[in-house]
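Moderator note: this is an archived Q&A kept for reference. The question asked for a predicted structure of one protein chain; the sequence and the answer are reproduced below.
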Amino acid sequence: MIHTQSLHLSQDLIIRRDPQYFDSFTAFNFVNCKTYHLDHNQYRVLKLIEKRSTSEKDLFSSLGKGSKERGRGEEIISEFLKEGILLEKIFEKTKYNTTEDNLGKKQVRFIPNSKVPVASFPTRADIFLTHRCNMKCIHCNVSAGKPLKNEIDVDDWKNIFDQLEEEKIFKIQISGGESTIYPGFSELITYLGDKKFKTSVLTNANRLDDEIIELFAKSRISVGVSLDGATPDTHDPFRKSKGSFQRVLNNLRKFQDLGIQSTITTVIHKKNQHQIQQIFDICQEYGVKMLCFVFIDEVGRGVSAQDWMLSVEEKIKAREYFHEIYPKYKELFYATIVQPENYISTIKNSQQSVFCKAGTYSMAIDSDGTVFPCTMGVQLGAIPIGNATIKPLVEIWESKNWDLFRGEIPLNQLSACSNCSLNMNCSMKKCRMRSLLNGDIQGRPSGCPSAEMKEIEQAIFDKDCFN
């Protein structure tokens, strides 16, 4: 017999209902980043417990009057106890209880006139804390260095983070520039440590001191690090900073010692393309949880990085090498590499309205408070939706300024994608910002998988012909 009066939700859990986003019921653990997709009964059980209405009579009568329904209720509770979603002990106050009295009372918000599935509020946000940077990296997407003229202060950011928590966002990712340069960075990290959502910080890991690293550990912040080579002679010139490689490794070791979850992103370029194996080895040695290989995008300073970019043939070799090596490390950490096949599904999608995560469950906030559809919007400075220092984020999310990203453009209006044989299988067609990167918001997106696959086929054909 389960005594429901002793049940309470894990304090690491966020529960949401998004009726316009596939009528979804979701629980998200912001510590281990595990997402639970719930059915209606599971959601009702959690909401009753969340509101502290935990008598057996209330709980099981909400599911129905028969023994079958009661059995289902007990089954749900047993499942949730096993998963750690529910805890069976005396309820104790924690630092997350400050807003608990309001949980379950908030009205579910509807986005007016949406033509596509859209969440009642974003589940994730990219936060560009500052455009300041201590480096001049070859490929930088935002040409970081100097701050924007009107970068917002600590109190403004705290207000934004309060709104994100109130609306039950799942996770945020803080970047820049170099976010650790922002005045008041430590104060904000301390503040975020008490917030009920997942926070990760992207950094070049070159100006971290022990105080900041210990603060990451205390605040349960995960850290994403840039490592663009397996040796100083491949990483440091790309980052234009002598000694950068060793500083990154030193800090990765500190993350490992303190149990801080770390990830690595590596830009594959001309000088490090032969070091994929060594990058894997570094991840293994330093306990990295995820490794992402990417290529240079022609945006920001990347436009002038032609001498560092791989040819089509070199990209083919890099991907082949990755897939040859990865199985040896698969049990240790997750790894991925950008390739056209990532955007091509075997399942056809006949949806004629074009939309992606931008404006449906995700947004980006620049260092002056401007809300953009996504990180590429920040990088291009294109299509601002509103400003978080002027209007509440809820009002910005409900704005008609998102319509372009919520199905306003039908597939048949896309000059290249509408005639492509892969358009029903391709997810890249949804990204209008990548098309804007090529100069035409309705044109072919930068990184078009169909175009790249044709280049690959031609390169292979040429190789066979001349060998």
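Archived answer notes: The CA atoms of residues 205 and 248 lie 5 Å apart.
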